[in-house]
């Protein structure tokens, strides 16, 4: 008689499926240490960009997400830790961008005021 998988009992198929799924579950992603490190660096960059002054809500969101990511990592919830670390990085990057925008707008307003002042001194207020 020839050997065929058709002759295996159904419970052996089920056991094989359970084993395959268990092995696939073991092949998970590595811990999100790189994501946590990137989030910490992004928060530090946002701090250095004066985001506390110009984008405090975004910076607070980044810090909160980073704290939660660290707590989830400590609890062994790597998937949640990874997602929160990525949220923290994105929020910190947004805070940095908004801070840079606010600083650029303030510099622009200052330069325009200087130009207006110089035009008044020179008596050329009407020129573009």
Give a description of the structure.
It contains 5 helices and no strands. Helix 4 (56-74) runs antiparallel to helix 5. The chain has a single domain (31-122), classed as Substrate Binding Domain Of Dnak, Chain:A, Domain 2 (Up-down Bundle). The protein has 128 residues and is mainly α. The protein is rod-shaped and about 100 Å long. InterPro entries: DUF4398. Residues 1-24 form the signal peptide. This is DUF4398 domain-containing protein.
The tally of structural domains comes to 1
Write down the CATH topology.
Answer: Substrate Binding Domain Of Dnak, Chain:A, Domain 2
Poorly predicted ranges: none
* General form: rod-shaped
Rg from alpha-carbon coordinates: 29 Å
> Biggest β-sheet, characterized?
none
List how many beta strands DSSP finds: 0
- How would you spell out the order of helices and strands? HHHHH
Keywords: Signal
Pfam families: DUF4398 (PF14346)
Protein name: DUF4398 domain-containing protein
Biased composition (Low complexity): 101-110
Give short descriptive properties of this protein:
single chain, mainly alpha, Substrate Binding Domain Of Dnak, Chain:A, Domain 2, 5 helices, 79% helix, DUF4398, signal, DUF4398 domain-containing protein
């Amino acid at each position: 008689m020839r050997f065929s998988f058709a002759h295996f009992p159904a419970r052996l198929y089920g056991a094989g499926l359970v084993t395959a799924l268990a092995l696939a579950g073991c092949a998970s992603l590595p811990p999100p240490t790189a994501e946590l490190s990137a989030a910490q660096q992004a928060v530090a960059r946002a701090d250095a960009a004066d985001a506390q002054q110009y984008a405090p809500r975004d910076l607070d969101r980044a810090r909160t997400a980073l704290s939660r990511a660290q707590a989830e990592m400590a609890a062994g919830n790597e998937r949640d830790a990874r997602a929160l670390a990525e949220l923290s990085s994105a929020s910190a990057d947004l805070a940095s961008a908004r801070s840079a925008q606010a600083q650029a707008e303030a510099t622009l307003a200052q330069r325009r005021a200087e130009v207006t002042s110089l035009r008044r001194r020179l008596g050329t207020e009407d020129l573009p």
